[in-house]
Amino acid sequence: MPSCITDLIVELEREPVLEAVRERIDAGEDPLVLLEECRQGMLEVGKRFQEGDYYLAELMISGELFKEAMEILEPHLAKVRSSESVGTVVLATMHGDIHDLGKNIVATLLRVHNFEVHDLGVNVAPEVVVEKVKEVSPDIVGFSSLITTSFESTRTAAEMLVKEGLRDKLKIVVGGGVTTPEFGEYVGADFQTLDASVGVAYCLEAVGEA
Ligand code: B12
């Protein structure tokens, strides 16, 4: 059953979305529940885009709207944060892909759980990932993938980590709307998920904090 926030996002109703998010967060609702309702809305927007009912303009508006909703939720997600680092994560959206909303959520949630996060941004070349891994020796490398054009660069980055002898010292996690367990295998990842919270739980387990 789609929630009110999900429906409002699909209809691109900016003010009502932001109002509903504010009201429900003020009423003490779990920010992760609200985040998931927003994400469901984005999935439906994507479906309408794919079916030709929405165009790029609607896709862009939904992206901005989602970002604004996250600005309201983020301080509430960050509330539980303390200070001691439990591990290091390098995050990237790889070459060919400029989607970053999901990656940014993962970064926030990881920081909430006291990971040191090095977010390399979007459209990242595989070499940049390798350089960062050499520099910060992370426990985990996370790739966010929302479009099939970034599949090859993601795999290349993972292969380069193997060639450089860095792969055994870290876990690779992939996530993002178009990823599947098969994509995880293709990349040689240790874990794949469509859910940021599940991904963070895996990362905590990987560093012995679960
Ligand atoms: C918003 C959006 C945009 C915005 C992006 C804004 C931004 N700053 O990110 C804009 C308008 C820029 C955009 C552009 C395009 N888009 Co677009 N976009 C979307 C849309 C509607 C929502 C994506 C989104 O942000 N969802 C909300 C977030 C929160 O969800 P999420 O990313 O999945 O993240 C969650 C989990 O997956 C997980 N997660 C994500 N990353 C990671 C990483 C790790 C390590 C872990 C553990 C977890 C994790 O955590 C998040 C929370 O749980 C999707 C539809 C869809 N089905 O996803 C299409 C979609 C991704 N776009 C698509 C397309 C085709 C495009 C364009 C090519 C359109 C065009 N003709 O120009 C361009 C791409 C340009 C490029 N090279 O990248 C297609 C991709 C199709 C495919 N199979 O490859 C989709 C699927 C739409 C569709 N159904 O056709 N898009």
Structure description:
The protein has 210 residues and is an alpha/beta fold. Helix content is 55%, strand content 12%. The chain has nine helices and five strands, in the order ααααβαβαβαβαβα. Strand 4, helix 8 (181-187) and strand 5 (191-193) form a beta-alpha-beta unit. The longest helix is centred in the first third of the chain and has 22 residues, at 56-77. It is globular. The two termini are 32 Å apart. 36% of the residues are buried. Residues 39, 42-43, 45-46, 49-50, 56, 59-60, 62-63, 66, 96-103, 105-106, 142, 144, 146-149, 173, 175-178, 193-196, 199 line the site of cobalamin (B12).
List the helices and strands and how they pair.
Layout (H helix, E strand, L loop, with lengths): L3 H7 L3 H13 L4 H20 L5 H22 L9 E7 L7 H12 L2 E5 L6 H11 L3 E5 L6 H13 L7 E5 L5 H7 L3 E3 L2 H11 L4
Bound molecules: cobalamin.
